[in-house]
Specification:
- By secondary structure, the protein is of the alpha/beta class.
- The protein has two domains: 6-177, 3-Layer(aba) Sandwich (Rossmann fold), CATH 3.40.50.1950; 183-394, CoaB-like (Rossmann fold, 3-Layer(aba) Sandwich).
- The chain contains 15 helices and 21 strands.
- The protein has an eight-stranded mixed β-sheet with strand order 12-11-8-13-16-17-19-20, with helices on both faces.
- Helix 1 crosses helix 9 (167-179) and helix 4 (72-79) crosses helix 6 (104-111).
- The model has no long low-confidence stretch (mean pLDDT 95).
- It binds cytidine-5'-triphosphate.
- Cytidine-5'-triphosphate binds at residues 251, 270, 272, 274, 276, 301, 303-305, 316-319, 331, 335.
Length: 395
């Protein structure tokens, strides 16, 4: 959805303006047409040439620039699929909250009917000031989307909330907004990710090599096509933006959250590598080393997929080291799945922790679709393609 979309980025006068360069660059690399509008103060921090070089497009700095073609503020406002203001100062927020139109950026925002996403960055006291907070609330009430700043050491040396949100988070929100009209729009999808951790004592646990990359990539792919995603994750990776995140540790925690989330969902994709066993007794104190052998007694975890009774599309994953197709087909039927995604975990070029995966999709009629090696994101897109073409999905 991001490819060929039209994104206007408004850059205002905060030191975080340098981070907008990365945002503009990444959106351009993803195939978006990025038009940058800079306020006068923004140009004190970064030059228009920096953005122009990366976006390969004219950068707009004034309504009165003689090289502008057409009615520039209206043209930009109309063609934008989304307007992002990053970083947004207290000043631009105040101006927008009060309907000012005294420079090109405020003109564009006032003239657009597209979603406007605002990512503030400023000193913590300015951010927490009641006037700024009132202005933010006023804009939120009018439908503006805010990406909260994060806590950290600010450029002024103070520690507090005011740093521009992380680039990957801002990009995730932009993708969510642009994906709203995608082919998964309005559908609720529950996705699990990562390897669960079963505690032995307060410091140790049993887990597996699953990184969570496949599940997180799948969650991002569904989000980018408009799905309302609930990601129940045991992964320690950064969480994707634009979805409900439910962090869990154990298989029991994951099971409870999956059952709850599936009550009103359209599809469940169980990407997580769920521990089949857990220590029967979790020691309250750290187990001390001794000269004796240590026996660990394990009890079986519940099969999460079998606990989901709702009539929805269920997709399972089968990480296998031998008899891959035969084992996957057995699981497909035993777990009453609509699709199973099988992969061979003995190959280092893909699988655990890799950006790549090589999978075979097997549907309920045992139709086998062996895919070539692909990025986990591309695999996710193919799974979403299968999902939206399934007759149960459109019901
Ligand atoms: N799964 C589950 N609950 C479990 C174990 C697995 O819902 N307690 C799901 C996984 O998320 C995956 C599918 O079942 O989508 C297959 O998982 P896998 O570990 O391959 O199958 P198991 O049934 O655990 O069989 P085995 O480990 O013996 O291969």
């Amino acid at each position: 959805m991001i490819k060929d979309s039209n994104i206007v980025i408004g850059v205002t006068g905060s030191i975080a303006a340098y981070k907008a360069v990365d945002i503009a660059n990444k959106l351009t690399q993803d195939g978006a047409n990025v038009d940058v509008v800079m306020t006068r103060s923004a140009q004190e921090f970064v030059t228009p040439l920096t953005f122009q070089t990366l976006t390969r497009r004219k950068v707009y700095t004034s309504l009165w620039d003689e090289s502008n073609e057409g009615v520039v503020h209206i043209d930009l406002a109309q063609k934008a699929d989304v307007v992002l203001i990053a970083p947004a100062t207290a000043n631009i927020i105040a101006k927008l909250a009060n309907g000012y139109a005294d420079d090109l950026l405020t003109d564009v925002v006032l003239a657009t009917r597209s979603p406007v996403v605002i990512a503030p960055a400023m000193n913590v006291n300015m951010y927490e000031n009641a006037i700024t907070q009132e202005n933010i609330q006023k804009l939120k009430d009018r439908g503006f989307i805010f990406i909260e700043p994060v806590e950290g050491r600010l450029a002024c040396g103070v520690y507090g909330k005011g740093k521009l949100a992380e680039t990957h988070h801002i990009l995730g929100i932009i993708r969510t907004v642009i994906g709203r009209s995608g082919d998964m729009a309005g559908k609720k999808v529950v996705i699990t990710a990562g390897g669960t951790r079963e505690p032995i004592d307060p410091v140790r646990f049993i887990s597996n090599r699953s990184s969570g990359k496949m599940g997180h990539a799948l969650a991002e792919a569904a989000r980018d096509r408009g799905a309302l995603v609930t990601l129940i994750t045991a992964s320690t990776m950064d969480y994707p933006a634009g979805m409900d995140i439910i962090p869990v540790n154990t298989a029991d925690e994951m099971c409870a959250e999956v059952v709850k989330a599936c009550k009103d969902a359209d599809a469940l994709m169980m990407t997580a590598a769920v521990s089949d066993y857990k220590p029967s007794n979790v020691a309250k104190q750290k187990i001390k080393k001794s000269d004796q052998e240590l026996d660990l007694h394990l009890s079986k975890n519940t099969d999460i997929l079998s606990q989901v009774k709702e009539d929805m599309i269920k997709i399972g994953f089968a990480a296998e080291s031998n008899d891959i197709i035969r084992n996957a087909i057995e699981k497909l039927h035993k777990k009453e799945l609509d699709l199973i995604v099988a992969n061979d975990i003995t190959q280092d070029a893909w699988g655990f922790g890799s950006e790549y995966n090589k999978v075979t999709l097997i549907d309920g009629n045992e139709n086998i679709n062996e895919l070539p090696i692909m990025t986990k994101r591309k695999v996710s897109d193919v799974i979403c393609d299968w999902l939206v073409s399934n007759p149960k999905w459109t019901k």
